[in-house]
């Protein structure tokens, strides 16, 4: 809602007269002010303080103005704003005969003398015909307030043919309105004018000294406008009304000379106008919080126009003759007071929900037609855009399932609804799978919270007695991925006693491993006790019938099972076997290096011990020498002819001994340093050998027991794949070897010619590339064998 504070607009219209009081009434050059100059009242004697000169500032003075200009100045803008949703009120105030009716209704005889009402009707209907995007409805009502009674000036037709319904001014949240007043829909300007002219027949006119046709009633003509706009699919409604009020004469009673009924009428009129005046004074005073609008019917009815939310214009009609100067003054006072009233016009705009829904429905129909036309143009078979039926949803579900199984490779895109449904089905399947996986894990593992140290400790204890084990960090010895690597929970499993699987110790080693193996394996960072792969193997072993374990299992239904070797041996046993066969050479080197290391360590500790002993001996001799020296000083020293101190034989021997020990110490220390370097070097060698032994074993174990039979065939000498080429870590090993070779080459060649570096680098790169190409080619060849990769992929990172 737009709210903009405005003031009541006030204009003065002077009725043309041949007897214009030029000395008394003067207009400002800008036509916005008027000055009244009166002579001192002679009756009130010499002492007379009454003000005689007045100046009034207004929004405009209409003097010798045509009806046309008067309308443009006073009403055109207000009516235009009513057409966009602002209520408006124009009222004419002034003494009887000053031209109120002429201004408001005009002379009905001649078109050019028509007043504000017919011109406003015309403007509204003109807007209705010009507007393309809105639909305008116009209705009118005409009310008369006479002696505080409300009359409907328009003919009302009731079932009884009478129009005697009691009218009343009623307040409601939307504003003030007259209950029972007839409101007439008019579709043409002419209809509205007919009603106006019909109503103009005076209802209560008394003979009067001022003007025979003077009306002592207030007449309110209202135009109700309702327009509906369509802004996209919203149906916007604008409601507004224009009140056009011809007030009763404001002349003072004394001047009318009325008596009896006429006097009573005049009193009523004056009363309601004086209430209007009071309200205007109250409204202009910002400190007043209560405005007594309900004091009279007129003020009650004008509550919205004066105190609130509409554009309000006042026309003060005055007579230009000297004889009416006091009434003129009174009217101008009233007008200036009115000028200080502020209003806040409010836009009466609503959105018709029902209309909006209907508009949206129409829009949907239109868009569907558009789609159908486009489908036709591109020769698309008939596609429906209706919501999907249960059968269609079921079909989409089955398509998604087929797609996930790999039975189909594409899902045809039909329309947006179908795409949305496909995604929905993916979501459904995903959440089902999540639940299934979780349920499976829960049935197999105990879920513990890693942050719960007590629970973790408890599990560790259980793991320690060989019943259960815990996986940490996913660093499984068998390089498997833990089932919940990305989760903060751990799964623990009860280990059943199984002959093919060794009991597990907390240190992470199978019990049947030797001390040497312990050494080998304990240097691995892994704290994992059971690898996932081991678990898989064990599962496989448990599930298979021992009788069929050596068979080819052609009848087994799942592809992966048919490719699994039957119960691979435990790693500890296999490791022993490996060390005697394929890994014997590296194992031998490893053992030799280890024994060298051990020997060096022993020698090193012996040398260290010896050095310590020498050091102690040296300390003792140093102390003895100190004592000798001290004794010499006390007894007095002997000096030879050259001034050299003479020492006894004991001291001499001690010195000689110390010298020898120092020599021995030095050589021992040097030996120890050499040994330390040697030990460090040996340690590295042993580490390298150990790692090599483990990785060779892992490859050998995988190739021997975990790779499907068909692949094993291919791996045999003469097969399509050279052993050791499959696992990616093996390929990396080859790269390391190349690197080693390059380094060796560098050592040999570079000292002779440093310029050869680029050449060797290039050569090494080409060699590496060649190895890589060969590897990829071998892998491709293997892939060509149907079913191999799928099966192997379950256990190894082949694909
Ligand atoms: P009121 O309604 O204030 O009592 P009227 O509008 O009936 O006064 O005017 C009295 C007479 O003066 C009417 O005959 C009217 O035609 C005439 N009259 C009033 N104002 C004008 C005007 N501006 N120009 C021409 N005639 C006017
Ligand atoms: Mg009149």
UniProtKB/TrEMBL annotation:
Q: Which Gene3D superfamilies match?
A: Kinesin motor domain (3.40.850.10)
Q: Give Gene Ontology CC terms.
A: microtubule
Q: Which InterPro entries match?
A: KIF6/9_C, Kinesin-like_fam, Kinesin_motor_CS, Kinesin_motor_dom, Kinesin_motor_dom_sf, P-loop_NTPase
Alphabetized UniProt keyword annotations: ATP-binding, Cell projection, Cilium, Coiled coil, Cytoplasm, Cytoskeleton, Flagellum, Microtubule, Motor protein, Nucleotide-binding, Phosphoprotein
Q: Which GO terms describe its biological process?
A: microtubule-based movement
| Domain Kinesin motor residue range list | 7-341
Extract the coiled-coil ranges from the record.
655-692
Pfam families according to UniProt? KIF9, Kinesin
Q: Per the record, which residues fall in region Disordered?
A: 469-491, 536-573
A GO molecular function assigned to this protein is:
microtubule motor activity
Enumerate the subcellular locations listed in this protein's record, separating them with semicolons. Cytoplasm, Cytoskeleton, Flagellum axoneme
Q: Report whether Cytoplasm shows up as a keyword of the record.
A: yes
Describe its partners and assembly state. Interacts with HYDIN.
Q: What does this protein do?
A: Essential for normal male fertility and for progressive motility of spermatozoa.
Q: What is this protein called?
A: Kinesin-like protein
